[in-house]
Design goal:
heterotrimer, A alpha/beta (about 250), B mainly alpha (about 400), C alpha+beta (about 650), B: about 400 residues, mainly alpha, two-stranded antiparallel ribbon, C: about 650 residues, alpha+beta, five-stranded antiparallel β-sheet, three-stranded antiparallel β-sheet, 26 helices, 12 strands
């Protein structure tokens, strides 16, 4: 089966410290994958590499059917190619309304001239309302994002991610700071999204991962320690050593 | 569509009406001799400064880029129009004087005469290559836009490409204007060194028209340019483009991950504002009459930022108000018309102490009233700042402070 | 009487007998002496100089200073001194000769030209004067204005020179004069070669005139000492070449626009000239046509047209001709100059390096405080320049009260530190504290302080420059040779910069305060929870940075003019130093200062006429440099950079 994202042999070092060490990873076009690992395992750096924020010292990262190399692209071009990222802390544009936030994220031409000429069409309105509906922000469209509660900001950011219509979503600890009910909803949403596109979830919370019910990749010291179902990896002796033995 | 645009920005209509009323009032007052020609010129120049401040607000208030070099483009615009004014004016004088010399003048003689008239002061007698277009108004007008635009494009491309942001960028832009100023200070820069260009208030071919009328024409032109720029910029910032650049101001990394080329937008805004500022300069210097490299000193550009800050950044009318209030007050205080204050042991002479007052006022505005004068309007209209426990609106250096934001 | 006198002199001085005494020479030429003029008097002065009469020097000196007179009664010469009753007379041998009324004596008043000639003649006497200082002065005056006549007396004065230093100087000067003025070319070449690659300016001053050239146009190769042949268009412009021919009468003058215009106006008849109507004369082509017509009619002189000029240029050769006729001498001189040139270039490189180093230490001093506040605290202090100015003014005020310069500088340095430290702490407490994490706002607020402070300083101290005088032991320069030298002030500043580097390193690496500063820089919250008071640390850090600016101000004030704009001149360079070097690192500031200082001197050297252009190129370079190392030479890498 052809893979959407293929990362192979990637190595990154910061001042001699190898944050990522010969990492190989791949994910199909409609797959949900959880990445777990102790602190400093390289989870965030991995996402930085895929989204173009950090350039690796060695290795290849290819994306899509044409196997485009992401290493030569800027962050903006990678995002336009179809990689969306949700940060750990909610990062929305607090001085702008929910509508404006969603409008910014809507899939449309991104060049300054095209944006200057951009005019809101009825279809865009419908889409924004639908997205807001999906994440329960319908009543908050004209409000400034800065006034929303922490959880609402998380939802807004997920909605923005969806508005981008990416082919691959990188989600960093989506459930942090959410109530139980909200976690349920997030799980459903992520599982639902993964039917049409690839989703990578980085998470600490084992309960949450279990609920996602998907393949799990365990990272340790910058490389893959184990991969498989959650039950499979939790039985792996190496994983137990890393998580329990020394943790 | 247009209706909703105007509805979305109610300040636009109010601003345009105020500007129109002001223009009419000045015109009438000048007509009945209530205000002097030089005061009309001062007001016209102030409108040009407001135009420059408007552009500064777009790049700093909206896009979060604190450029400390925009007055370089202002002066460049002035130099470009000044070259034509000086050339055409000198040409008239040379032709008149050659007409009495016994023979009809040849083009070479006229050229030579102009060159030695203009450049005698720096000990040269040939027209430098950069004056090749000075004979033609349309070409030189094109240069008013093209040269500063090109400079901004090249400088901005270099700076933004290497992701220079925040104070680094401010210092770099400051270095740019200093480099340009030092270059122009040389006598062999081709622009008359520290003598600069002068006599720009005399329009070629309009000897018969009095300065009274010319000053009014320029006043109208400045007002029209300001109105047009205000309209255009309001339209830009109220749309999606404005949304993108405000997002860049508050959190540019996030904007990148949305797929927008942050560098492209910054370059676009930098160049656009450079062009606007250059146009303002092209309108300003014919009213000032003289331009020299001191106009490019880094401090001039910092003042531009000061005006915007005092007026209230991130709102277009704030920039206009800040520029108008500070520059008019400045000319009132430094013009020696403000009454001195006797303190018994010493006398506060405002010509000497205005800078101190301005500096202190500026510090106070930064510390206590980040919204500047514009904040007063929020007070009247009942707008409040959000309570964010002191957190700014985004992680970037140019992002709005809590106190600057409006609910 | 005269005979007795002569005998007496001969006895006293035990000098060989001379043909004539000074008195005899004067008397013999009395008429000439009385009406002395530059053209006629030379033989008399020469005779006096060559007479060997020891009184000649006194006589010549008196003559030049209007102290020589003739008694009208008998035409006898006396040394005269004006007094209340007329003149006190002294005979030429130095014995008092009574008193004379003013009307009895004709005072000799030689004109400036004659006085100059007398002075030259006097040199040979002073060269052997018993007073060492006078001999040294005489040598100096010859060296300043070398003349062929000085050669012989100088040679004569060498052997008997008792002072070793002066003897060496005399010998050197003798060789310098020989290579220029000796009639024997072998002696000159030997003198030239004796110097080798000596770096002395005096040697280059002597050699260069030997190689002076003039341009010459000629149809046939001239017999003169040719330096090189010049090709029109390559070595000189065609206009210059043609002008050379015109001035040598080898070609008619070219028609200037002015001359043509005058000629045309003069021949204007019935609204046309040379068949061209008046109105059509507004192009050069038409004017040429009209002039050619006039030439054909013979009304105006022939003038060279462009074609004729080109042909004439082809027919002639152009040369650089040495004014010195002897080719052997010019060859030797140019070889000597060439080898000197190589050595000078090497020395200039060394001098340039020294200059760069000293500029770098100034920038380092100015920037180090900024590096602390900008690098360690992330605060841009636009008022840093004004702190530098305040330091300089502190030095000035101290000098008003403490007249001893050494003591005043020693007091001013700590005092300047104290003043600016206090100002810095006040600014931090009142303003910057409220603006942490808002670097752009800090930049603007400190700019407000900057303009206010600058104006206050201007109001208090006025706009004119105030003196800050360095102690006498810092005057002068350490001179290695005529090329390499460095002033003591600059050495002192270099030492000061080194001191501060050491001090800063010690403070940051070896003290509790340094540890706390580093802790607060890296993680303020963590530091606070460990019992460090970040407020106090920030305050002290800012005070320290400002205090160093004050000391830099005193140092800069010693060689620059102290005005309220002193700091402004250094602020942009200081920012550049910090940015180029890399933020948050003292070594970065050092590297930045070295690079900017060195580069600026280098560009100034390549384009010496223009300091302004040098600064422009330098800033352009920095803008380009940022492209390749956006975080400076010494940058924090990886996660610590916090991007």
């Amino acid at each position: 089966m052809s893979q959407l994202l293929e990362v192979s042999g990637v190595t990154v070092s910061f001042d001699g410290f190898r944050a990522i060490n010969n990492l190989t990873f791949s994910i199909g076009p409609a797959e949900l994958r959880a990445i777990i690992g102790p602190n400093g395992a390289g989870k965030s750096t991995f996402m930085d590499i895929v989204t173009g924020k950090t350039k690796p010292n060695a290795g290849t990262v290819t994306f899509g059917e044409k196997s485009t190399s992401l290493l030569k692209l800027s962050e903006a071009k990678i995002a336009r190619a179809g990689v969306g990222r949700k940060f750990q802390r909610p990062t929305v544009f607090e001085d702008q309304t929910v509508t404006e936030n969603l409008t910014l994220a809507l899939k449309a031409a991104r060049s300054p001239w095209r944006v200057l000429a951009w005019r809101s069409k009825p279809a865009d309105h419908t889409r924004i309302e639908a997205l807001a509906q999906q994440v329960g922000l319908s009543d908050h469209l004209p409000r400034k994002a800065g006034e929303l509660s922490h959880g609402q900001k998380q939802w807004l950011e997920i909605a923005m991610l969806l508005a981008q219509e990416p082919r691959l979503l990188l989600v960093d600890e989506p459930a942090a700071g959410m109530t139980l009910a909200e976690r349920e909803k997030t799980t459903e949403l992520l599982v639902d999204i993964a039917k049409t596109r690839a989703v990578v979830v980085v998470e600490h919370d084992m309960e949450f991962v279990r609920r996602l019910n998907c393949r799990v990749t365990v990272l340790h010291e910058g490389s893959v320690l184990a991969e498989g179902s959650l039950d499979h990896v939790t039985k792996n002796q190496d994983v137990i050593d890393v998580y329990l033995g020394r943790g | 569509m247009t209706r909703s645009f105007i509805l979305r920005t109610p300040s636009l209509l109010i601003f345009l009406i105020c500007l129109a009323l002001f223009t009419i009032a000045v015109t009438l007052a000048a007509h009945y001799g209530l205000i002097s020609t030089s005061f009309v010129k001062t007001l016209g120049k102030t409108l040009c400064l407001c135009l420059a401040a408007l552009a500064m607000d777009l790049i700093w208030g909206y896009a979060g880029i604190l450029s400390l070099g925009h007055m370089a483009f202002f002066a460049l615009g002035g130099y470009m129009i000044g070259m034509w004014l000086m050339y055409a004016r000198t040409e008239e004088i040379v032709i008149t004087s050659l007409a009495n010399s016994g023979l009809p003048a040849t083009p070479e003689e006229i050229q030579q005469g102009i060159a030695s008239q203009i450049f005698g002061v720096v000990g040269a007698s040939d027209l430098p290559a950069i004056w090749s277009f000075a004979h033609s108004l349309p070409l030189q007008l094109a240069l008013v836009v093209a040269l500063p635009g090109l400079l901004a494009l090249i400088f901005g491309w270099l700076a933004f490409r290497s992701r220079v942001t925040g104070v680094y960028l401010s210092i770099l832009t400051q270095a740019m204007t200093l480099a340009l100023a030092l270059y122009l200070f040389q006598n062999d820069s081709g622009l008359r060194g520290n003598n600069g260009l002068s006599g720009l208030q005399n329009l070629p071919g309009l000897d018969a028209v009095s300065q009274d009328s010319i000053s009014l024409w320029f006043f109208w032109a400045s007002a029209a340019a300001l109105a047009l720029a205000y309209l255009t910029l309001s339209w830009i910032v109220s749309g999606k483009f404005g949304s993108v650049i405000r997002a860049i101001r508050d959190d540019e990394a996030r904007v990148r991950f949305l797929g927008y080329s942050v560098e492209g937008y910054k370059l676009f805004v930098f160049t656009l504002t450079a062009v606007i500022v250059a146009l303002a300069g092209a309108l300003y210097y014919p009213q000032a009459g003289i331009i020299n490299p001191a106009e490019l000193a880094p401090i001039a550009s910092i003042y531009l930022a000061v005006w915007v800050a005092i007026g209230g950044r991130g709102r277009l009318y704030g920039a206009v108000i800040g520029a108008a209030v500070v520059s008019l007050l400045s000319s009132w205080f430094t013009g020696g018309r403000a009454p001195s204050i006797p303190l018994g042991f010493a006398t506060i002479n405002w010509v000497d102490w205005w800078q101190v007052l301005l500096g202190a006022a500026f510090v106070c505005v930064t510390l206590f009233a980040p919204k500047g004068i514009g904040g007063l309007f929020d007070h009247f209209t009942g707008l409040h700042t959000p309570d964010r426990k002191g957190a700014p609106l985004g992680p970037d250096q140019g992002s709005l402070q809590e106190k600057e934001a409006i609910e | 009487m005269r005979f007795l006198l002569a005998c007496l002199l001969a006895l006293i001085c035990a000098a060989p007998l001379r043909a004539e005494t000074a008195a005899e020479i004067l008397t013999a030429n009395a008429a000439l002496v009385q009406k002395a003029s530059r053209q006629t008097i030379a033989p008399v002065i020469d005779a006096l100089g060559a007479s060997g009469d020891p009184t000649a020097a006194a006589v010549l000196e008196a003559w030049a200073n209007k102290g020589l007179g003739i008694r009208k009664a008998d035409g006898q010469f006396f040394l005269i001194t004006a007094n209340a009753d007329g003149y006190a007379l002294t005979d030429l041998a130095g014995a008092p000769a009574g008193q004379a009324a003013k009307s009895d004596i004709t005072e000799l008043k030689p004109n400036a030209g004659v006085r100059g000639m007398i002075a030259t003649a006097l040199v040979q006497f002073t060269l052997s004067d018993p007073d060492t200082l006078k001999r040294a002065a005489a040598l100096e005056s010859i060296a300043k204005d070398p003349k062929p006549e000085a050669l012989a007396p100088l040679r004569a004065a060498i052997t008997n020179e008792p002072d070793a230093t002066l003897k060496t100087q005399k010998q050197r000067l003798e060789r310098l004069l020989t290579l220029r003025f000796d009639p024997d070319s072998a002696a000159r070449i030997a003198a030239i070669n004796s110097f080798g690659a000596d770096l002395g300016l005096d040697l280059r001053g002597a050699l260069n005139p030997l190689l002076a050239t003039t341009k010459l146009a000629s149809a046939t190769p001239p017999t003169a000492n040719i330096a090189r042949e010049l090709k029109p268009g390559r070595d000189l412009t065609e206009t210059e070449a043609y002008d050379l021919m015109v001035s040598a009468n080898l070609a008619p003058a070219r028609l200037t626009v002015e001359a043509q215009r005058t000629a045309l106006i003069a021949n204007l008849q019935n609204g046309e000239v040379g068949g061209v109507s008046f109105a059509d004369l507004n192009t050069q082509a038409a004017r040429d046509r009209a002039y050619t017509a006039l030439e054909a009619a013979g009304t105006v002189p022939q003038a060279a047209t462009d074609d004729e000029a080109t042909a004439a240029l082809k027919a002639h050769h152009f040369y650089d001709i040495y004014t010195e006729p002897d080719p052997a001498v010019t060859t030797a001189a140019s070889a000597a100059l060439k080898s000197i040139g190589h050595k000078v270039a090497a020395m200039q490189a060394a001098d340039l390096a020294l200059d760069g180093l000293s500029l770098a230490s100034i920038y380092f001093l100015a920037a180090i405080g900024l590096a602390i506040t900008f690098g360690v605290m992330g605060v841009i202090n636009m008022a840093h320049g004004e702190f530098i100015t305040m330091g300089a003014y502190t030095g000035y005020v101290v000098q008003l009260y403490v007249p001893n310069y050494t003591a005043s500088i020693l007091i001013a340095l700590p005092l300047a530190f104290a003043v600016t430290f206090a100002a810095g702490v006040a600014m931090e407490r009142l303003i910057i504290r409220h603006l942490y994490k808002r670097p752009l706002e800090t930049l603007l607020a400190t700019f407000g302080i900057s303009i206010a402070l600058q104006q206050i300083l201007k109001n208090v101290f006025g706009t004119q420059a105030r003196p800050l005088t360095s102690p006498a032991w810092l005057d002068g320069a350490l001179t290695l040779n005529d090329v390499v030298s460095i002033s003591y002030i600059r050495i002192a500043i270099f030492v000061l910069a080194l001191l501060f580097l050491t001090f800063f390193l010690w403070l940051m690496k070896r003290t509790r305060l340094g540890l706390e500063v580093r802790a607060v820089t890296q993680n303020p919250t963590m530091a606070a929870s460990m019992g460090i008071n970040p407020d106090r640390i920030n305050m002290l850090t800012f005070g320290l940075g400002s205090g160093i600016a004050g000391i830099a101000g005193v140092a800069i004030g010693l060689f620059a003019k102290v005005t309220s704009e002193l700091g402004t001149d250094y602020i942009v360079q200081s920012f550049m130093t910090v940015v180029v070097g890399g933020v948050g690192n003292i070594w970065g500031a050092l590297a930045g200062a070295t690079m900017i200082g060195g580069l600026q001197k280098m560009i100034e050297f390549l384009n010496p006429s223009n300091t302004l252009a040098a600064q422009t190129y330098m800033i352009l370079f920095i803008i380009l440099f940022i492209q390749f190392r956006p975080r400076g030479i010494i940058a924090l890498k990886g996660r610590a950079a916090g991007d």
